[in-house]
Design a protein that fits this description.
By secondary structure, the chain is of the alpha/beta class. It has a single domain (2-249), classed as NAD(P)-binding Rossmann-like Domain (Rossmann fold, 3-Layer(aba) Sandwich). The chain is built from 8 helices and 7 strands, in the order αβαβαβαβαβαβααβ. The chain has a 7-stranded parallel beta sheet with strand order 3-2-1-4-5-6-7, with helices on both faces. Strand 2, helix 3 and strand 3 form a beta-alpha-beta unit. Helix 2 packs across helix 8 and helix 4 runs parallel beside helix 5 (107-131). The longest helix is centred in the middle third of the chain and has 25 residues, at 107-131. The protein binds NADP nicotinamide-adenine-dinucleotide phosphate (NAP).
Length: 250
């Protein structure tokens, strides 16, 4: 039993306590991965998610880390390896999503978004490539990376940068490590400032979905299925799957 547990692959999922990150943790746990669940502020949600995984026969440990703290991010993978002794998959899912404009906002918004949405994934990717040597990295992007009109300039720029990093790292980290991405479209309404689901604006996504080719919003399973496909297909690297109902095409 102990040997079987050591043989099981391990996945680190950032921002895994709730919403899309939680769904990724559940999907990977169902597929047999041991889960290293990273969280920032959502300690109670992280504990509940880990408990749910364990109750369903999975293995999960939780790892708090402020992704805007470079030193803490540099130590995160080492903490995971201390606990699980191997790492096979890295999912960079955590993200800051706040309105900002290139004209109005100062350096702060850019710095905050780049720290969490670009630099932290980059540090984790580099540590992963060095320490794991082989495996798979998946960065969670956003269908809006194909656009230039936005009310979230710093967020969008950080995701565009992460998209380019995905492709460059796919080349540099090959042949041992594959690097891919999933770009979700309308999946969940934005989280409230407190971190909980925003229900102040019911029907928000449904209204936006009228402009999407498939005329409906997506489900978290559309994101997790794309993640599982990218992990399974060992001849795919440097790809971005748009789980967005065709929104990136229009
Ligand atoms: N929701 C959608 O429909 C949608 C659409 C397009 C793209 N996406 C992308 O899909 C991914 C997941 O989306 P989501 O809506 O589920 O994300 P989210 O709820 O907005 O954020 C995910 C997690 O990021 C973590 N995080 C933020 N700042 C952090 C920091 N400084 N340190 C540590 N953790 C931090 C938070 O963890 P804690 O709560 O533990 O602090 C948060 O729960 C994101 O990359 C997002 O850009 C989502």
């Amino acid at each position: 039993m102990k040997k079987e547990s050591v043989l099981r692959p391990t996945a680190l999922v950032t921002g895994g306590a709730q919403r899309i990150g939680q769904a990724i943790c559940y999907a990977l746990a169902r597929s047999g991965y041991k889960i290293a669940l990273h969280y920032g502020h959502s300690a109670a949600e992280a504990r509940q998610t880990a408990q749910h995984i364990r109750e369903n026969g999975g293995v999960c440990a939780i790892f708090p880390c402020d992704l805007s703290d470079k030193r803490a991010v540099e130590n995160l993978l080492g903490r995971v390896l201390k606990k699980f002794s191997r790492i096979d998959v890295l999912i960079n899912n955590a993200s800051v999503f706040e309105p900002s404009s290139l004209k109005k906002d100062e350096h702060d918004a850019m710095k905050r978004h780049f720290a969490v949405n670009f630099h932290a994934p980059y540090i984790l990717m580099r540590s992963f490539a060095r320490r794991a040597g082989e495996g798979s990295i998946i960065n969670i992007l956003d269908t809006h990376i194909v656009r230039d009109k936005t009310s979230h300039s710093a967020y969008l720029l950080s995701k565009k940068a992460l998209a380019e990093l995905t492709k460059m790292a796919a080349v540099e980290f090959a042949p041992g490590v594959r690097v891919n991405a999933v770009a979700p479209g309308l999946i969940l309404p934005p989280a409230s400032p407190e971190g909980g689901p925003a229900n102040q604006n019911p029907g928000y996504l449904e209204r936006l979905a009228k402009d999407v080719p498939l005329k409906r919003k997506g489900r978290v399973a559309n994101v997790t299925d794309a993640v599982l496909f990218l992990l399974d297909n060992d001849y795919v690297t440097g790809q971005i799957i748009y789980a967005d109902g065709g929104e990136h095409l229009i």
